[in-house]
Design goal:
CATH architecture: Alpha-Beta Complex
GO molecular function, one term: DNA binding
Number of domains: 1
Pfam families: Methylase_S
InterPro entries: Restrct_endonuc_typeI_TRD (IPR000055), Restrct_endonuc_typeI_TRD_sf (IPR044946), Type-I_RE_S_subunit (IPR051212)
Radius of gyration: 17 Å
Shape: globular
Order of helices and strands: EHEEEEEEEEEHHHEH
Strand order of the largest sheet: 3-6-9-4-5
Distance between the termini: 45 Å
Keywords: DNA-binding, Restriction system
Structural class: alpha+beta
Number of strands: 11
CATH superfamily: DNA methylase specificity domains
CATH topology: Adenine-n6-DNA-methyltransferase TaqI, Chain A, domain 2
Oligomer: single chain
Protein name: Type I restriction modification DNA specificity domain
Length: 180
């Protein structure tokens, strides 16, 4: 973040294959904050933390900005961005946006240079959540993670073909679970 390379050897949570690399969140993610006034976007769909099922990446029913009676500035987001809740982040509320819209200022729209499904699954993982918990361990009253803290989280990045293979396998397993 400061333009200086820092050694992360002492922070690495676990060993990864040689073809993978550990990176900080900010090196593969752009936190695309874009606060807008809601009154000019009344017909846009609105996503708040309550619209995302915890720890699953599933978007629940949403309503328009007008129906939700949104009055304060919200972030504009675009289809395909990951929407991540910075408030009570241990609930793991994140989803890939299926449409353009506005999201609560308590959320971050994220752009990424890696496979979105892979990144979403990692954000929902215990490993990511443990790093978030450690980062914000001193916050008790209002647990939230700021951009600087989030930017320093470590992420293991496999080659693109491996990202795709992992996501394919995860989808296959979730499909089997759904059948049970």
């Amino acid at each position: 973040m400061d333009g200086i390379e820092h050694c992360i050897d002492g922070e690495i949570p676990f060993d990864i294959p040689e073809s993978w690399v550990w990176v900080r969140f900010f090196s593969v993610i752009d936190i695309a904050t874009n606060l807008v006034r809601p009154d000019t976007y009344a017909d846009y769909m609105h996503i708040a933390p309550d619209n995302i099922e915890k720890a699953t990446g599933v978007l629940l029913e949403c309503r328009t900005v007008q129906q939700d009676k949104v009055v304060s500035p919200n972030h504009m987001f675009y289809k395909g961005q990951i929407i991540y809740s910075k408030i009570r982040p241990l609930l793991r509320k994140a989803v890939i946006a299926p449409f353009d819209g506005l999201c609560s200022a308590d959320m971050y729209p994220l752009n990424t240079s890696v496979n979105k499904e892979y990144l979403l699954r990692y954000i929902l993982s215990d490993t990511f959540n443990l790093q978030v918990a450690t980062t914000m361990s001193s916050r008790v009253k209002m647990p939230k993670i700021n951009q600087d803290e989030l930017s320093n989280i470590l992420i293991p990045i496999p080659p693109i073909q491996e990202q795709e293979r992992i996501i394919s396998r995860v989808k296959e397993l979730f499909d089997k679970i759904t059948l049970i």
